[in-house]
TrEMBL record:
Pfam families for this protein: Pro_CA (PF00484)
Cofactor(s) the protein requires to work: Zn(2+)
Name of the protein in its database record: Carbonic anhydrase
Listed SUPFAM superfamilies: beta-carbonic anhydrase, cab
Length: 228
């Protein structure tokens, strides 16, 4: 299955597909994906967030998109974001069915499973950019700042600790210090981007060759805006 999928992707890169230009709201097909570069994929997400934040998200024909993408998916980007109910990538970037892969986990961290998912998304399915999307007022980050221990959450919080430890402050080192919490969230995005490069030779090589971009971003739950 994987081998055939990889062969399929290779056929794409040989230029067998005639690229078809992208337009906002257009269903992502193999031909449309072929026209998208890592840079243009990022621009598409940026423009989508501008629409969302100004309450100008476009109206999509979901039924048409479902019917078209049912034949195959050719997304333009992958987003790693928190499970937070306000940090919903498809809405934040004004994207539709079949447009983006999303991996969601509290605190937008990566582990082997998420890295494997991102490798599939980029190497096999042709996604052009990976966005690690942190957000303001993140409960997981606050939990890490307060050294919360609870069931399975304890192990997840431990993965956020390097960001807490790397963050300097003259104030309190807990969730009461909002500035500290935000600095930790920013640091966590940077460390997660770095971890993707360090732990995935496949994605690192794709980035080095200019086949994908790996970027961090911060979503403000109070304004709807993403800062890049
Ligand atoms: Zn969160």
């Amino acid at each position: 299955m994987l081998a055939s999928a990889l062969t399929y992707a290779a056929a794409d890169q040989s230029g067998a597909i005639k690229p078809e230009s992208y337009a906002v709201g257009k269903t992502m097909t193999k031909a449309v994906q072929a026209s998208i570069t890592p840079g243009s994929a990022l621009d598409i997400l940026k423009a989508g967030n501008v629409r969302f934040a100004s309450n100008k998200s476009i109206k999509r024909d979901n039924k048409k998109n479902v019917m078209k993408t049912g034949l195959g998916q050719y997304p333009l980007a992958s987003v790693v974001s928190c499970i937070d109910s306000r940090a919903t990538p498809e809405l934040i970037f004004d994207q539709g069915i079949g447009d983006i892969f999303t991996a969601r986990v509290a605190g937008n961290i990566v582990n082997e499973d998420i890295l494997g998912s991102l490798e599939y998304a980029a190497k096999v399915a042709g996604s052009r950019v990976i966005v690690v999307l942190g957000h303001t007022h993140c409960g997981a980050i606050k939990g890490a700042c307060d050294d919360v221990k609870m069931g399975n959450l304890t192990n997840l919080i431990a993965k956020l600790k390097p960001a807490v430890e790397a963050t300097k402050t003259d104030g309190e080192r807990n969730s009461k210090n909002h500035e500290f919490v935000q600095k930790v969230a920013d640091e966590n995005v940077e460390l997660t981007v770095q971890k993707i490069r360090d732990m995935s030779p496949i994605l690192k090589e794709m980035e080095d060759k200019g086949q994908i971009k790996i970027v961090g971003a911060m979503y403000d739950v109070g304004t709807g805006k993403v800062t890049w």
